[in-house]
């Protein structure tokens, strides 16, 4: 299975920034701004253009009851809902976000062990899920550690996070070997823990961040070069910024669903950006440009896909090909004249129903003054008209009544 982005929780947009759970402390509050938040989902922590942590889990998710200060557990939260979550990080603040995803094929690195603890007795709470009394035998068990339950020496379920550690006097940051305590696992357990299980913690390399996002742009047109690669005409969405660079990496995400259950599947996860161009001129970076073309080493790119550019930590950018090389000179995407284009040509940018309507209207009134008038006449939505501007134009047409010629401005 490929990675599927299922939701985004943004912190600082909820009515309350935090909420306090007895015995657990403060949980940060955020708003589901894309898709849905499902308890137990994998997550990565984003701060600005940096990905600070990956393989987190929505181990606990609660919301405030209406007209009450009490909270209740939730398994699923939809678009624009406020939630309070525990993922094994105490540094989540306003402006941060949790990118929620599923991926059964690629899991975290569990090759190095940090500590091993024996489960003495499990317990369950309706609000905070599973708690287990543990006694570390080797190494150290830390708050927020990536861990797994073992039964008979084999993993039980998916890797999880230690959401809380408690000693006799209250919360602690770590439990050394021989010191008993309680580990909070929340609702991450695919199988209820049992006495005699082992809780093993894994080593994670220390990094300031795991990835830097250069930005994202939406595909409006694709030219197949015939050599296994394509050039895509893209536009950066309004209100966002992007700076693509030749030689760095990109992902192709394909959207699905509606606003209330929006998902995006990562079709290609690690593509080199082979070329860039703005206004038909090859460039090495697109800083400040909203519309440009991107050359990618794949043919599986479609209209409405999103190209997400990024730089992994510790990875040297790929060597960029010379600007004069054939692959780095994107083919210009010709604009379609809506006043002269044939039905098959219009079908490249419009649905069959809208092509039929456009041809009838053009025959009846002789043409359209500009792309905006064309879009409104055939029933396009505002965002569809914005997208069409990068792919079409409207040539001069004479008005039948007066013969005056209008210009597409």
Structural commentary:
- Helix 3 runs antiparallel to helix 4 (382-389).
- With 409 residues, this protein is mainly beta.
- Helices cover 8% and strands 45% of the residues.
- It is built from four helices and 32 strands.
- The protein has a 16-stranded antiparallel sheet that branches. Strands 12, 13, 14, 15, 16, 17, 18, 19, 20 and 21 form a ten-stranded antiparallel sheet that branches.
- The protein has helices spanning 343-346, 352-365, 371-377, 382-389, and strands at 4-11, 18-21, 25-35, 37-38, 42-47, 50-57, 60-64, 71-73, 76-77, 82-86, 96-102, 113-125, 129-142, 146-151, 154-155, 160-161, 164-167, 170-171, 174-176, 181-186, 198-202, 211-224, 230-235, 249-256, 263-278, 281-283, 291-296, 306-312, 336-337, 392-393, 397-398, 405-406.
- The model is unreliable at 316-331 and 401-409 (pLDDT under 50).
């Amino acid at each position: 299975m490929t990675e599927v982005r299922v939701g985004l929780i943004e912190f600082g947009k909820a009515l309350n920034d935090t909420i306090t759970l007895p015995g657990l402390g403060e949980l940060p509050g955020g708003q589901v701004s894309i898709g849905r938040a499902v308890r137990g989902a994998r997550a990565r922590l984003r701060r600005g253009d940096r990905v600070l942590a990956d393989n987190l889990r929505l181990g606990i998710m609660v919301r405030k009851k209406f007209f009450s200060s009490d909270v209740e557990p939730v398994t699923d939260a939809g678009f624009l809902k406020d939630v309070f979550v525990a993922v094994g990080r105490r540094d989540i603040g306003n402006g941060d976000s949790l990118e929620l995803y599923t991926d059964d094929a690629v899991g975290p690195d569990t090759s190095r062990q940090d500590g091993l603890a024996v489960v003495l007795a499990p317990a369950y709470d309706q609000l905070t899920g599973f708690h287990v009394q543990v006694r570390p035998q080797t190494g150290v068990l830390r708050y927020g550690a990536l861990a797994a339950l073992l039964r008979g020496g084999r993993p039980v379920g998916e890797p999880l996070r230690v959401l809380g550690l408690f000693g006799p006097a209250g919360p602690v940051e770590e439990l050394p070997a021989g010191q008993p305590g309680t580990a909070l696992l929340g609702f991450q357990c695919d199988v209820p823990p049992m006495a005699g299980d082992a809780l093993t913690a894994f080593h994670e390399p220390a990094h300031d961040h795991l990835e830097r996002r250069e930005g994202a742009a939406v595909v409006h047109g694709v030219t197949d070069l015939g050599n296994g690669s394509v050039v895509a005409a893209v536009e950066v969405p309004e209100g966002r910024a992007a700076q693509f660079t030749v030689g760095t990496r990109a992902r192709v995400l394909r959207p699905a669903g509606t606003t209330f259950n929006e998902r995006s599947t990562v079709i290609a996860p690690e593509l080199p950006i082979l070329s860039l161009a703005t206004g038909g001129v090859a460039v090495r970076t697109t800083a400040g440009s909203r519309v440009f073309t991107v050359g990618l080493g794949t043919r599986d790119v479609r209209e409405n896909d999103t190209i997400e550019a990024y730089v992994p930590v510790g990875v040297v950018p790929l060597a960029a090909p010379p600007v004069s090389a054939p692959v780095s000179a994107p083919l210009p995407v010709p604009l379609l004249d809506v006043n002269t284009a044939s039905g098959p040509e219009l079908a490249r940018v419009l649905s069959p129903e809208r092509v039929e309507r456009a041809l009838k209207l053009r025959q009846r009134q002789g043409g359209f003054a500009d792309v905006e008038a064309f879009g409104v006449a055939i029933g396009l939505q505002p965002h569809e008209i914005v997208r069409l501007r990068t792919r079409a134009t409207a040539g001069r047409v004479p008005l039948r009544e007066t013969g005056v010629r209008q210009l597409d401005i």
